[in-house]
Amino acid sequence: MLSLIKQRRSIRIFQDRKVEKTKIDQIVQAALLSPSSKNNNPWKFILVDDKEVLVELSDAKEGGSQFLAKAPLSVVVLADPEQSDVWIEDASIATTMLILAAQDLDLGSCWIQIRERKHSERVSSEEFIKKLLGIPKNLRVLCMVAIGYPGEEKTEKQIKERKLDDIYQNHFGNKMRISNIY
Ligand SMILES: Cc1cc2nc3c(=O)[nH]c(=O)nc-3n(C[C@H](O)[C@H](O)[C@H](O)COP(=O)(O)O)c2cc1C
């Protein structure tokens, strides 16, 4: 798990290769096995592999989503705020789980933020996606995750030396020395 975490990077270029159904199933299961507040499981997921829809979804934001047009798969992460007042945390953890599961299956992925983002001057990214995918009014869209076989190589994650200074022991300000195992 630690080396998986170290190797995970945001991948935005993908091979022109489909993701196998068994891998998709495993990724979804990882998300469904996530912890959630009061075990409410307020999330829902839309798996998109239709090329035309992916191209349309890639236009959800003014920037930062265009690469989705060339991804083989997108998971759109939804949640019901009526089921959980902490749906953002719940859905974010589920998204992290699916990203790590994808990594374990030799797939690359990248989180595309949707909540609080704009499609255009008057239309939010959420409104745009809800209309496109026929998502009911009561549900919110947190993000999308682009998934596919990596078409780019990235170096392992490195912890910036100064970030090790932000760790404290027992009381804010009491610095705790963390050895940089990376
Ligand atoms: C909440 C969140 C929102 C993000 N939104 C986007 C996005 O909209 N588009 C994008 O290309 N990357 C997005 N990313 C990926 C970050 O840019 C990336 O995680 C960061 O630059 C660190 O790089 P790494 O993932 O390779 O470690 C997002 C990541 C997180 C956690």
Structure description:
- This protein has 182 residues and is of the alpha+beta class.
- The protein has helices spanning 2-7, 21-32, 51-57, 87-104, 125-133, and strands spanning 43-48, 73-79, 108-113, 140-148.
- It is built from 5 helices and 4 strands, in the order H-H-E-H-E-H-E-H-E.
- A 4-stranded antiparallel sheet has the order 1-2-4-3, with helices on both faces.
- The two termini are 14 Å apart.
- The model has no long low-confidence stretch (mean pLDDT 96).
- The structure holds flavin mononucleotide.
- Residues 9-10, 12, 64, 110-113, 157 line the site of flavin mononucleotide.
Characteristic key phrases:
182 residues, alpha+beta, NADH Oxidase, 4-stranded antiparallel sheet, binds flavin mononucleotide
Total number of helices: 5
List segments where confidence is low: pLDDT < 50 over at least 5 consecutive residues. none
CATH superfamily membership: NADH Oxidase
CATH-assigned fold name: NADH Oxidase
Q: For the CA atoms, what is the radius of gyration?
A: 18 Å
- The backbone outline, from C-alpha atoms, is globular
Strand pairing plus helix content: what structural class?
A: alpha+beta
DSSP helix fraction: 25-40%
How does CATH name the architecture?
3-Layer(aba) Sandwich
Strand composition percent: 15-25%
Distance between the termini: 14 Å
Task: Estimate nothing, just give the exact number of structural domains.
Answer: 1
Ligand names: flavin mononucleotide
Largest sheet, spatial ordering of strands: 1-2-4-3
**Average pLDDT figure:** 96
In total, how many beta strands? Answer: 4
CATH level 1 name: Alpha Beta
Summarize the main sheet: 4 strands, antiparallel
How do the helices and strands follow one another from N- to C-terminus?
HHEHEHEHE
